[in-house]
Amino acid sequence: MKAIVHEGKKGMQGLSLKDFQEPEAGSGMVKIKLMTAGLNRRDLMVLNRHKEDQPPLIIGSDGAGIVIQTGDGVTNVAAGEEIIINPGLGWEKNTDAPPSGFEIVGLPGHGTFAEYITLPAENVEKKPAHLNWEEAGVLSLAALTAYRVLFTRAKVKEGDTVLIPGIGSGVGTFLLKFAKAAGARTIVTSRSQDKQKKAMEFGADLAISTTSDWNEELKDETVDIVIESIGRATFEKSLQIVRKGGTVATFGATTDDIVEIDIRHFFYGQLNLLGSTMGSTEEFKEMLDFIERHNIKPVLDSVFELDEFEIAFDKLKNSENLGKIAFRVSE
Ligand SMILES: NC(=O)c1ccc[n+]([C@@H]2O[C@H](COP(=O)([O-])OP(=O)(O)OC[C@H]3O[C@@H](n4cnc5c(N)ncnc54)[C@H](OP(=O)(O)O)[C@@H]3O)[C@@H](O)[C@H]2O)c1
Question: Which PANTHER family match (predicted)?
Answer without folding.
Answer: DEHYDROGENASE, PUTATIVE (AFU_ORTHOLOGUE AFUA_2G13270)-RELATED (PTHR45033:SF3), PTHR45033
